């Protein structure tokens, strides 16, 4: 039983593991995305400068897959949306994922720190816009009319993650920090648990298929598939609050 008050701010960090049971691949598992493509080629600004068509092809394939009929939120996404609806305190979901499965499940208090696959932005005028089609180097920016300036609205290695100010504020305010389906390899997200603990007042919990390398940094670590662990955790929180 988690001993927290019902007005506690809860910060949830999610990673690729929460979307695995929806049919989207993780990155660092044995069959993950980085076992098939090199991250230097497709997830760095240098890779994009070297071969933009290769990077577009990589994100075009993932965008097509995301909007295909077979991909839908799973019970873990649904449980977090239910928590946001029913918890009397503040809930913030910070996701490293670029998919839109949290939104489709109904989450609204959501920060996409690594960007969004269904958006693109222009390298010159910098304006993100919704985009569901394939993208290539011939496309012209609808705002500034430059050709070849559009890129996926995602955060690559060496680039600053988005909304770090809002995230820092939530890290310092929260009374419960929950990390779901992330290996904890990528900073700054991997450092959030230490930052929360440095404030000295939050309970920290990891929910992951297996204990991550950083599991020892958390007060508590539960292992299993997100589609089972997350609904059970949300039930536990909401029922203790009813009690
Ligand atoms: C399940 C499950 C199921 C499976 N149920 N669980 C040296 C030291 C420290 C830092 C650095 C360093 N050198 C460089 C850096 C910085 C660098 C970094 O961290 N590098 C490390 C690799 C060392 N970071 C950056 O460059 C970032 N920017 C930055 O730091 O800016 C400066 C800054 C400074 C100070 C403050 C703020 C900023 C940018 C990082 C960008 C990451 N981009 C990517 C691609 C995005 C677009 C895309 O999707 O293509 O983001 S990389 C990729 O990794 C993606 C993910 O969001 C991210 C994290 O992956 P995630 O989600 O953890 O996935 P996996 O696969 O690793 O783990 C899945 C987990 O789920 C596993 O544990 C499974 O067991 C589990 N699981 N099935 C539950 N059913």
What does this structure look like?
- The chain is of the alpha/beta class.
- The chain is 33% helix and 18% strand.
- The chain contains nine helices and nine strands.
- The chain has helices at 17-20, 39-42, 45-50, 52-66, 75-86, 101-105, 164-173, 192-199, 226-242, and strands spanning 10-14, 91-95, 110-112, 115-122, 128-130, 150-154, 176-180, 203-208, 220-223.
- A six-stranded parallel β-sheet has the order 3-2-1-7-8-9, sandwiched between helices. A three-stranded antiparallel β-sheet has the order 5-4-6.
- Strand 2 (91-95), helix 6 (101-105) and strand 3 (110-112) form a beta-alpha-beta unit.
- Helix 5 runs parallel beside helix 9.
- The protein starts with 9 loop residues before the first strand and ends with a helix.
- Bound molecules: ligand BJW.
- Residues 15-17, 20-21, 26-29, 32, 43, 96, 98, 114, 154-161, 164, 181-183, 185-188, 208-210, 212, 225-226 line the site of ligand BJW.
């Amino acid at each position: 039983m988690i001993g927290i008050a019902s007005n506690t701010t809860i910060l949830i960090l999610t990673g690729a593991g929460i979307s695995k049971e929806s049919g989207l691949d993780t990155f660092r598992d044995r069959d993950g995305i980085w076992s098939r493509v090199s991250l230097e080629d497709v997830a760095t600004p240098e890779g994009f400068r070297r071969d933009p068509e290769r990077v577009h092809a990589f994100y075009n394939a993932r965008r097509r897959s995301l909007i295909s009929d077979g991909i839908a939120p799973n019970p873990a996404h649904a449980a977090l949306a239910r928590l946001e609806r029913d918890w009397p305190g503040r809930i913030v979901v910070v996701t490293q994922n670029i998919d839109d499965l949290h939104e489709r499940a109904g989450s609204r208090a959501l920060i996409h720190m690594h960007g969004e696959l269904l958006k693109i932005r222009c390298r010159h005028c910098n304006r993100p816009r919704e985009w569901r089609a394939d993208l290539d180097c011939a496309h012209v920016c609808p705002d500034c009319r430059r050709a070849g300036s559009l890129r996926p609205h995602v955060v690559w290695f060496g680039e600053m993650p988005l909304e770090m100010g809002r995230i820092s504020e939530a890290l310092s305010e929260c009374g419960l920090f929950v990390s779901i389906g992330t290996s904890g390899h990528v900073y700054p997200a991997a450092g959030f648990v230490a930052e929360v603990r440095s404030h000295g007042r939050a309970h920290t919990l990891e929910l992951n298929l297996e204990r991550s390398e950083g599991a020892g940094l958390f007060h508590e670590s539960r292992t299993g598939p997100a589609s089972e662990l997350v609904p059970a955790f949300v039930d536990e929180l909401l029922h203790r609050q009813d009690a």
